[in-house]
Amino acid sequence: MSTPTRKHTALPKAQILVEALPWLTRHHGKTVVVKFGGNAMVDDGLKAAFAQDVVFLRHAGLRPVVVHGGGPQISAQLERLGIASEFKAGLRVTTPEAMDVVRMVLAGQVQRELVGLLNRHGPLAVGLTGEDAHTMSAGKRYAQVDGERVDIGRVGEITAIDTGAIEALLDDGRIPVVSSVARSSDDGHVYNVNADTAAAALAAALNAETLMVLTDVEGLYADWPHSDEVISRLTASELEALLPELSSGMVPKMEGCLHAVRNGVGTARVIDGRVQHSILLEIFTDEGIGTMVVPDGQGDTR
């Protein structure tokens, strides 16, 4: 009499690992730039899950680079210090006094916390800012308000990127964590740079395989606010046609995705940072989550 086969309750775990195998093979050795922001930055559970995901990428043979801003933390610190802060055309008006706070919060608070979370899993993360080793250089950026050019202070746009320091860290098996501030080679001032824009420019300069942008929505909606249907995949040209209709909060994210895929990055993805382990779900499952932007003419592949 044959013995009945024992039912292994762990079998679904093995099936998940097998599903991940082709994606592990495809992404091995590739650089992935992750923009860290939104609720994932302020919720302790999401922060811990984010750190686990990034360390998993590293141990799975990928080369993750993290770029972060810190809007909520900057606003809280400015309020605490009694420094007025306003936005014009979606950009924070940044006085020299406010810029000191931006620098302090990004490099001294947000980055330190993120490096600490990653390094709970081993001596992996190294923090730097765009100022370090001239990683990012910036020029003064102006806002357009009602067709007029408006001075918004120490807000910058990236003019050049030197990837040497980041590539050296990646080659050493480290995880670079980059704060989105940059110095100008013209006037010597330090500028606050939009983190979505910085992540996209860095992904292009590193010739990354993927740019991933964490946000507080499921992805790019097909017909917001009339529908909550998320566009799973679209080409650069399709995205460019949609840009004028997007909400102001999504514009820098989707402009960054467009810049990335038109400058050598394989795919750009906007994913829901409110979902624990959203990075792993996007990279290592057949379905993925969020919205993926691909260069024009690329086949239908995640």
* Structural category: alpha/beta
Count of the separate structural domains: 1
- The unreliable regions are none
* Average of the residue pLDDT scores: 90
- Tell me the name of the CATH homologous superfamily: Acetylglutamate kinase-like
Pathway: Amino-acid biosynthesis; L-arginine biosynthesis; N(2)-acetyl-L-ornithine from L-glutamate: step 2/4
Family: Belongs to the acetylglutamate kinase family. ArgB subfamily.
Subcellular location: Cytoplasm
EC number: 2.7.2.8
Brief summary:
This protein has a single domain, classed as Carbamate kinase, CATH 3.40.1160.10. It is built from nine helices and 14 strands.
Record the SSE blueprint.
Layout lengths: L10 H17 L3 E6 L7 H16 L3 E6 L2 H10 L6 E2 L2 E2 L3 H23 L6 E5 L6 E10 L2 E14 L2 H8 L3 E5 L1 E3 L6 E4 L1 H11 L4 E6 L17 E3 H7 L8 H11 L5 E6 L5 H7 L6 E4 L8
Parallel strand pairs: 1-2, 1-11, 2-8, 5-8, 7-10, 11-13, 12-14
Antiparallel strand pairs: 3-4, 6-7, 9-10, 13-14
Helix pairs in contact: 3-4, 6-8
